[in-house]
Amino acid sequence: MDSAVKAALITAAAAIVAALIPVGFANHWFSTDHPAGSLSSPPPSAATPSGPSGGSSSSRPASGPDDTWVAQLASVPISAGHAQLQKELGVVHSEVPGAQYLDSSDYGSLRGGYWMIYYAGSFTDGQQALAYCAAHGLTTGNQCLGRFVSHNPADRTDMCFPPAASPTGDCTDP
What we know:
Blueprint: H1 3-20, H2 25-28, E1 68-77, H3 82-93, E2 100-103, E3 114-123, H4 126-135, E4 145-149, E5 159-161, E6 168-169
């Protein structure tokens, strides 16, 4: 892919995410209540566009994260449709080929109605998630944040915001 096209796609994705993150940022980044694999099957076009790693694979895990920190890379309103989800996944996979998505409505710690695109590293806290993002050139809150994902609504505020060197928010295990 031409670097100018890639840059334009990344810029467009950042603009979309930025539009979804108004001043009430912490309250806008999701919440809900069922486990991630609860949909009987992935969306019709859930195959992932080929990324730099070469192949194509499903981005939706059989079961999602629970009681763990992840690097949240994007969100797409479910109402935007599967095509928009696949478009965002394509953009994110250009930087993080191992990214997956989940339905935020399946988690108490997330605001429902979104597909959250994330990387499920073995992060012990939000700072490690931000460090992972920084290592991949994702250094702004529009590109990445550390997010604790659980079924507990009390964890909704467990978000760690960049920069990785001096993060803000709740960056430690609840």
